[in-house]
Amino acid sequence: MKKYIIIAGVPRAGKSIISQMISKKFGYQHISMDSIIAGIEKTFPETGIDSDANTQPYDNLVNISAKMAPFIRAMMDSGEYDELDYGVVIDIYQLLPKDFVQHIDSSICDIYYFITSEVTA
């Protein structure tokens, strides 16, 4: 398995549950981007990241994805996890495939998209 795994997709699809299961089974650290995004929204409104923005939902998804993909890449590039034996599993709703391809190194990261909320762990 690669050092980083991203579980992305629609709300209520089971991303967090699967991420936690991977974390527990393989000893990966689990990072919920929902919590990080909420912190950014409240602390740094100048970023324009606002899950409840008064815009079309898809337009807001595009905006947040374009900002979070480079953020995730910076986390990976920080070197914080390089010396550790375990990997990292990240769950996130707001990450579109085009932003993953543009910003994240697929040689160290796999991504899995959950495209329906009709699943159970």
Automatic annotation (TrEMBL):
InterPro entries: P-loop_NTPase. It comes from the Bacteria. This is Uncharacterized protein. It comes from Oceanirhabdus seepicola.
